[in-house]
Amino acid sequence: WSGTGWLSAFYIGDDGKPYLKENGMIDFAGSGVVHMVGGFAGLMGAIAIGRRRELDSDDPEVRASLKGHSDLLCSLGVSILWMGWYGFNCGSTLGAGAGNGSYINLASKVAVTTTIAAAMGAITTMLYSRIFLKSYVLTLCLNGVLAGLVSITAPCSVVEPWAAMMIGIIGGIVYILSSAGIKMCGVDDPLDAFPVHGACGVWGVLSVGIFATRSNIKRAYGFDNDAMTSGNQFRNQLIGVLAIGGWTVVTSGLVFFPLKFAGLLRVSDEEEKVGLDASEHGVENPKVEMGEVKDSVAAKAPAQDV
User: Fold this and answer.
1) Which of the two ends of the chain, N or C, has the fewest CB atoms closer than 10 A to its terminal CB?
2) pTM for the whole thing?
């Protein structure tokens, strides 16, 4: 995002031309510089720390115990994230009152594309869960929302609403396939951080080179050229993906693996067995305690006549 960064859409070299021909890499609100970095760093961390021991248990009850204890809190968190994303994407115009109203108009369009992509990501994962898993899996649908949001973060200002719909649908598919892929590789990513942020971040950056339009690029960035039709924009986006992914993998690996070899990355077997809720926060059994709260609330509720 730096105006002097070699990937930047705003970087101009000594010869008066962008370092990357024509428009540079377009990443309006950070599918690459934010989400790819987090996703790929999370992947390296998951590889370094290894799988949770319970995942390899022959007892299905032990494996089931790894499920998060509150889908409601997951839903609340995604709702907060979705609302915050409007500040994230729309706010990347960096000036609502500037440009004689042109900035706020652009922010309004960004809000539309953001909403459409998030909704389509959720619908895609919902249909997948119903058709292939035979039920509506809430956590899968919630990650579908995030997959759509991550995917639209880079192209949100340079695509049309119909393209945002396609980006959200493909983002949901990218999430499903990448989540299955890392599981097949034996990587334990409990929150699907890499599929949501890493893989969908890659897709979001590349989607600029597929779905952006010349008129929208001119409106958002001021450039008026044939970078889209010539394929130059997709080339720039691909260079950006490779640069961000490579940098993140190397630098995060230099952090995680020395910590692993020093024995400082993973908690002890005993702490892992009782859980960090207990060892770090003093909560012995979050599922039981939440159940007790629900029972207490139900007991205090006034009786209703049937």
Assistant:
1) C
2) 0.89
